[in-house]
Design goal:
The structure holds 2 protein chains of 2 kinds. Helix content of chain A is 9%, strand content 43%. Chain A is built from 5 helices and 36 strands. In chain A, the strands form 8 sheets. In chain A, strands 1, 3, 5, 6, 8, 9 and 10 form a 7-stranded mixed beta sheet that branches. Chain A has a 5-stranded mixed beta sheet with strand order 14-15-16-17-35, covered by helices on one side. Chain A is globular. The N and C termini of chain A lie far apart (84 Å). By secondary structure, chain B is mostly helical. The chains are: A mainly beta, B mainly alpha. The interface between A and B is large, with 42 and 46 residues.
Amino acid sequence: MKFTDYILVFSLVFFLSCSNNTDIQKKSPEYPDIFPDYTEVTIPANIAPLNFSLKENPDDAILLIENENQKIKINSRNGEFLIPEGKRKRLLTEAKGKTLHFTVSVKKKNGWIRYKPFSVNVSADPIDSYIAYRLIPPGYELWSKMGIYQRNLENYRQSAIYENYLTKENCVNCHSFPLQNPDKMLFHMRQTYPGTMLIDNGKIEKLNTKTAHTLSALVYPSWHPSGDFIAFSVNKTMQLFHQNHKNRIEVYDLSSDAVVYDVKKHEITTSPLLSQKGVFETFPTFSPDGETLYFCTADSVNVPSEYQQVKYSLCSIGFDPHSRTFGDKVDTLFNAAQHDKSVSFPRVSPDGKWLMFTLSEYGNFSIWHKDADLWMLNLATKESYPLDKLNSNDVESYHSWSHNSRWVVFSSRRIDGLYTRPFFAHINDDGNPEKPFLLPQRSTKFYNELLYSYNIPEFITGKVEVSKHKIAQKAIQDKGIDVKFSPMSE
Amino acid sequence: MLNKKISWITGLLVFAAFFVFLQLTCEYHFYYIEQDQMFRYSTIYVQSKIGSPGGLSLLISYFLLQFFSLKFAGAALVALLLTLITYFTALLMQRMGAKKEFLIISLFPSVFLLFAHFNIYYHLQGTVAYLLMAVTFYVYVLFTNFRKRIVFGAITIPVLFVIGGSVFSLYTAGIILWEILSKNRKWYVSVVFIFIAAVVAFVSINIGIISSYRFALLPDFYFNPLLAPPPHLLMAWIAFLLTLLMTKGFSFYKKPLSSRKNLIVISLQIALLFGVTYKIYQKNFDAQTDRYKRLNYYFYTSQWDKINELNRHEKTTNYLHLNLLNSALAEKGVLADQLFQFNQNGPYSLVVEGNVPVLLSDVYFTMGDIASSQRYALEAYTSSEDMVNPRMLQRLVQTALIYGTYPVAEKYISLMEQTLMYKKWAKEHRKFLCNDKLVEQDSLLGPKRKGLITEPVLYDTKGITSDLEGIAVANPSDKTAIEYLGLIHLLSKDIESFGGLIKKYYRTDVLPGLPKSFEEALAILMVYDPQNYGNYRVSDQTQLKFADFNKTYNQKQNSNDLSTLMYNLYGKTYWYYYIFK
C-alpha cells in the first residue's frame, strides 16, 4: 500500500468511528446516572482519562465527547466507557479553558435513548502531577498491611513510597512535604522500629522525637516553607467507639501542645502560648511566608464524659524563623464558641490568600464525623464560609492545596459512608470551588473492590524517588538521632 | 504396560495415604484456613495478586483454598499436590539412575511438607510453588543438550521467582547439585546459576518487593512474616536436596539387590518414614487447637448441639472453647438454664478479652451487641494476613444491614457476589438493601436491629454490663442480653449486682421469669439476705434442692473430699460454682 492509501484507510476508520449511527427514539431530560459522577465538573487538562460507567445495564451504549473542534465516539464495554489515553491527551490539550460536552446514548428494549448531555469544564490551570496518600483499611485499633503511595495524576500509575511489610507491618503515618516538594518529606513509624523518617534529597534521617519535656513523640506535621522547621503537635490520644451512633469511633486528646522542630539543630521548641495548661493545642500549620503559625485550640474538658464539649477554635501566632521565636499574642480567626463547632486541619493556600479547614460538631478527629464539612477562610477579610459545592451528607475531612493554589484534594466518605476517597476541586479567583471530581481510575469498579481508605492525600509536584529499601534499612539498623528540647529563645 | 499400571497403582496408594491421614488429622483445619482467602472472579482481584513475587502460585493456592469449605476437598487437594511432588521427585531420582527399591525416599520431602500444613500460618502457596519447582526441575533434566539446559536453567530461575517466590533458590541449588552429581565435565558452568539467583535476590530486596534475604531465599516466604516457621518446613527443602544426594550415593551400588537385601532396604525406608512421620506428628498435632477449630466450624455452621456434645464429653477450661460453647447455648435460647451443666471458669468463660477478633465478633453478635460485633469483624478483617475473611465479611454485611448503612453493605455484598462459594449467600442478602421493613421482619436481623441502643453511648465508658442492660431494655423480647448480663455477675460471684438486677427487672418485660441458674442464685440471696430478698419466691423444687445442698454441705464440711462429693451431687448447680470454683 502506498502512503496515500494508509491515509485513506485511516480517514475512513476515523470517520466511521466518529459517525453516530444510532437511531435515537427518545431524548431523556435527565443526565445519565453514572459512576463516578463527572457531570458538570471542572478538571485540569493534565488529568488521566475520566473513565466512567452507567449504573443501569443497557444492551448497548455510546458516548460522544465533543466541542467545537473535536468529536470522539466511544462504545461502552458492559456499560463502562474507557477513554483511550491518546484520545484524552489530544482532546484535553485542545480543550484547555473550554468546555467538553458528553452525550450518552443507551440502547434499551424500545430503542435508543439519548440522555441530556453534560459538560466537563477543562481548566487552563494545571494540577500538580502527583498526589501522595496512605492506603489503610478503616479500622479501630488493629491493622496488617498499609503503605504510603503516590499516584501520577496524568495516568493511572501508582507506586509505593513505603510499605510496612518491610518493617514487620508497623504503623506508618503522617507523611508530609514542604510546599509540595517531592524531594523532601517525612513520615512516622510507630510500634516496631519507631521513629520519624526525614528524607531530604535522598538522604534519610531517623529521629527519636520523644523528649522529657514534651507530651509525646511528634505527631501532626506541617513544614515551614524554608524547609528548616517543621511544626508538630504532641498529643496524648485515646480512642473509644460508639454503641449506636452515625460516627462509629471517637478519638480525642487527653492533652496536646504545638511545637516547632528545628531540622538543622535537631531541637524542639515551643511557646508558652502553644503549650498552655488546661488548653488543647493541635494541628499547627505554617503560612506560606513562614511568619505565621496557625493552629487549633480548645479548652480542655473532662474526657471522655464531655467529649462532645471539646470545640477547637482556629488561632494564629507570629513566628520569626531567624530568631526561632514566637509572637507574644494569639489571634483567634474562627471562634468555636461563637459557632458551636470545632475546627481541624487548617491549610493555607501557597499564595497565602485562603485557609481551608474542616468544621465538625466537636473534637478534632473529623474523619469519623459524618457532619464534618470543608470551610474556607479569606485571610484578607477574615471572613469564613462553607464550601457547599465540596460538601456532602457524609464526611469531608483532610485536604491539601496544589502548588499553584488553584486545586485542592480532599478526602470524603460520600460514596459508601466508610471508605475514604480523594476528590479534587478547582478553586476560582474568588476562593469558591467548582464541582469536585473523584480521582479517575482505569476501571470504574476499582473503588468498589478496594478495601483500603485513602488517608491524608497530599499534592506533590513530581515523583518521590527515594528507595523504600533504604528507608527500611535506616529504620531497622539506625538507632536514630535523639531530638532535644530547647526552651524558646528570649 | 505393567510398569505403567504399577506406577498408577503406587500413585493412587500414595494419594490415598496422604488423603486419609489429612482427612483424619486436618479436616477442621482445612475449614479454618479456608477463611484466609476469598477468591474472586474479578480482573482487578487477579491483577492485584499476580503482580507480586510468587503471584501465580499465590493465585493458584487461593483458587484451591476456596474449595476447602467443602467436605473432603481440603484433604483431597493437598494430597493431590503432595502426590504430584512425590511423583516428580521420583522421576528426578529415576533420571539420576535410582533403583526402584530406593524410590520410597521420594516421599520424604512431601511428608515434611505435609506437616507444614498443620500450622495455620503456613501458606498453601508454599506447596503449590514447590510443585512448580519440581515440574520445572524435571523439564530441566529432560534437556540432554548441556548448552540448552544451561540456557533453560538461566531463564527459569528468575521466572520461578516471579511465579513461585523464594522456591527459586531451592531450584537453583537443586540444578547445580544435579550438574555436579551428573559428573558433567563442564559442571562448573552451572555456577552461573548462583550468580543469577544472587542477582534476583539482590534486586528484589533493593527495589523493596521483598523485605530481606530470609524471605527471598528461604521457605519463610510461605509463612506468616511476623512469625518463625517450624523447622520441618525448611526440612522439606533440605530433604529434596538430600534425596538427590542419596540417590547418587545409592547409584554407586550397581549390582542388583538380592530379594533379602531388597526387603531390608524397603523396610528400612518405610521404618524411617514412619518414624519421621510419628515424631513430627507428635510434636505438631495440638489437640486443643484442633478442638477449637472443630468448635469454630460447628459454630460457623450453626451446629449448636454438636458444640454442646463435644463439651459434654471433653471438659475444658479454655476460654475460647467456653466462649463458643456458651454462645451456642445462647443461640439455642438455653444459656442461663444450662450454663452450669458445663464446666465454667469465671466471667471470661462468657466473653474473653484479647486479640481474638473473629471469636469476639461472633460472641458479641450472639449477645446482640452489634457495635462490638461490627468492630471485631472489621478488626478481624483488617488485621488478617491478606486482609480477607469471608466469614467476617458476612458479619460486616449483617451488621451494616442492622444499622441500615446500606451503601457499605452493598459494597461487601458485591464483592461476595464475585465468589463461587459465597455468591448465593450474597445474592440472598441483596434483597435487604434499602429495605428497612424486610430487615425488621427478618428472624435474625430484625431482633438485632430492635436491640440497638438508641442513646449515644460510648462503648466501655460504663462497661459491658451497662451495654448489655441497654440492649436488654431496648428489645425485652430477646432474653440473650439479660441472661449474659446476669451470668457475668454470677460467674464473677458478684451476687450483690445480680440481686440489683433482679430487683430492677424481675417480673418486668425484660425478665418476666427466672431461668434455672438465676433461680439458684436468688435462692442464695433469699437465705443469706432475707431482709432484701425474703419476699421473692423460687420454685419449690429449687428451694428443696438448695436446702438439701446446704444440709449436705454442713454435714460433710470436714470431709477431705468435700469438693468431689458435692460435685457428684450438685456439680451442675450455681451453688457448687459459687462455693467451690
